[in-house]
């Protein structure tokens, strides 16, 4: 049995359950939605990631003896609430966008239909997973778009929490990265892993010749030799001298990468190592990758910027009560009135409006009714959970395919890296029809 | 038994072990150090956090059957290396700054003395933990400094990975936050938890009166009522009508907080609720907290900005081989030559130089020798691990006390929020003496 995820929760969710049990409204049918009020400044689209991880965590959202003992000991909730939590199983339905889907302001990414109490306790877990993973995937997608056919390796584990690192590797893979340095991500999520050696390996040895010769003997001629510990030109010459033209790759981790890529490529070619690849790895982000598009680089290794969302470490998703049953028995849309944090009341349905050419034109969000497909459109709502049971695949590979499809449908301007407006306008059905 | 932490590691660390086993240098005595080349732009000091978590993770750094099976199946390393990993136990010594200590460029925060192979495999785990936790603590310390005697509540779980959230709550606590919304942080790290209700709770009910009355009945008069769901003035009036002057607090989560704090304080006082406190929680960071210093606010709730390091989500710490035994048997300082990422070779020792007034003056870093205490100084190096055994407390409360002491020693300019240089100059002993 997996560890419980039930305490990855904010204190106030449980006190709300307590108060709602007392007021008799804990069982009111409700709809909670997760969406972005806006995209991070200048971004043209967002990428939803983490849905699969959230659904797996939902299965483990159980208040067992240890969790209840903690809550009791610290008097966080009363006995009646503890009894309710002890029996907690999510029994509602969850709809949402498929993991890997692109999104825009207002897109209903996760729609939880349940009683108030069953839904409110999932707020923190859903947002933690989706905000983190979507922040990483949204940045990663810009990087893979800029990289084109050249593969990207995620290698940012050391720049983020050790648990985030595993999830970040998964989210980057969803957004098109080809591999990760993180071994746990390989084990847990089936993502290909990659890596050969750091500067410390070279420094350990008495000289670079000793280090390279041993690495080639141990890891094979296809390995990647790190050539910037001392002098790049001397190291490239030594690498080809020792490995011959079968050398897999050289890696450059410092300096002016554009200039060095040209120099090293020319040197490798002159030495006959025409198929030896060049890997670059120094503080890359989507802009640095774009600046290297015309340079003879074969592989990008990306660290800090991808795992920290390239300037936007949280996607800004919120989880809001948008509808609940009223006294009449009918569902009623609800929203708070605060001027600077408005929400649109009512349950939402997303549809990607496409032209006859298959290119996406708008994000249609129906309020309390499903928008009509005009023949070229793509339905975005997927049933993820039915009466408490997860009914979709939760793996990263499926989400990765979905992302490639969804991104390919966007107008070309969506992939520009410069600051811009969301690539598709969000149109609420009440405006549209 | 805890889950193994051994795969929270970059692929290349294990291939380096493989190559070093072949070259015969895997057992060379080495020193690896973790330090910051620079502070994040404009920051005046950094706060080390995560040391306790790293030491706990070190105890669980074991390659068990599952980990070895994964490595074998994916041919990540050869059989000889798998055998070595199966027997892996860290048997070296680790020195470092105490958790909670403030630091400056070059401060030797973690100094690992071991064979190459034993030390190199800890690189990613050490950096993941320390980079994340120190980023959060460094931001959190600026917030608690700006907040003065007013307590700060960490409530950013939803804006970061669900595992980071627990560690972020701990790091914020180390840097002086008083409590967290995160229940798992309460359970795992003993941090006080806090929370009452969100807007969804009010919206669930037919009206605010119903919601407030039930909350007061269920959670007591000392609870915090959220007053900005509809109209703040009406809600405050209703709150005091229902609870009387015993009302614990009101919370404001939107709008102009300075203006509203003054208005709500005046209204509460006019209603006789002079001891009812005001909690504010809308997108606060250290600058917003500073701007509220003159406003009648009692408690700050901080979310996104603290868990994401307030603009600097990774502390930028690196883990470098700085010394290793040479052929002669003597230890030799090593460093790579790259121009833009230089390191200082040799084992480091940190000392906080203080004036006779007890105020810190400089960060003294001795290279290969311990700097002399001139009588007023404070020794910074603590032995954390002795022959593989953790020999210091790893809890958050101890680190929190240490941080309060270390910060109090800094010159006043260190606590200014404006962009500045590091508050203490780092002086390498070779320059100093």
UniProtKB/TrEMBL annotation, chains A, B:
- Pfam annotation, one family: NAPRTase_N
Q: Where is the signal peptide?
A: none
Q: Which GO terms describe its cellular component?
A: cytosol
GO biological process terms on file = NAD+ biosynthetic process via the salvage pathway
Q: So what does this thing catalyse?
A: 5-phospho-alpha-D-ribose 1-diphosphate + nicotinate + ATP + H2O = nicotinate beta-D-ribonucleotide + ADP + phosphate + diphosphate
Q: Which UniProt keywords apply?
A: Glycosyltransferase, Ligase, Phosphoprotein, Pyridine nucleotide biosynthesis, Transferase
Reproduce the UniProt comment on modification after translation. Answer: Transiently phosphorylated on a His residue during the reaction cycle. Phosphorylation strongly increases the affinity for substrates and increases the rate of nicotinate D-ribonucleotide production. Dephosphorylation regenerates the low-affinity form of the enzyme, leading to product release.
Q: What sequence ranges are listed for the domain Nicotinate phosphoribosyltransferase N-terminal?
A: 7-131
Q: Which domain of life is it from?
A: Bacteria
In short, the EC number is 6.3.4.21
* GO function terms (MF aspect): glycosyltransferase activity; nicotinate phosphoribosyltransferase activity
Q: In which pathway does it act?
A: Cofactor biosynthesis; NAD(+) biosynthesis; nicotinate D-ribonucleotide from nicotinate: step 1/1
Q: What does this protein do?
A: Catalyzes the first step in the biosynthesis of NAD from nicotinic acid, the ATP-dependent synthesis of beta-nicotinate D-ribonucleotide from nicotinate and 5-phospho-D-ribose 1-phosphate.
Which PANTHER family does this chain map to? NICOTINATE PHOSPHORIBOSYLTRANSFERASE, NICOTINATE PHOSPHORIBOSYLTRANSFERASE PNCB1
Of which family is this protein a member? Belongs to the NAPRTase family.
The name on file for this protein is: Nicotinate phosphoribosyltransferase
